[in-house]
Design brief:
Oligomer: single chain
Number of strands: 0
Order of helices and strands: HHH
Number of domains: 1
Radius of gyration: 16 Å
Strand content: under 5%
Structural class: mainly alpha
Largest sheet: none
């Protein structure tokens, strides 16, 4: 997941995604130790995505004026 895509989401959604990623990380590590999967590449991408999410959440916490919450997009009415 790209950082730009992550920045467009609100903090609540990012917290939910971080919890899901932690659960995925646990499952993949467990499968690796049992020899059931060869998901080393998947594990690496999950860890990097988790780090990106946590970094953006921390940035919003420390600097709310420079890293504000994304405003909800207004839907345009069709003609």
């Amino acid at each position: 997941m790209k950082a730009d895509k992550i920045r467009q989401q609100d903090s609540d959604e990012l917290r939910r995604q971080a919890a899901d990623i932690r659960e995925q990380n646990f499952r993949i590590r467990f499968q690796l130790t049992m020899g059931q999967t060869d998901g080393l590449k998947k594990l690496r991408t999950i860890r990097k995505d988790h780090a990106r999410i946590l970094t953006i959440l921390r940035d919003r916490e420390l600097h709310p004026e420079t890293a504000p919450e994304p405003s909800p997009k207004k839907k345009k009415k069709g003609k």
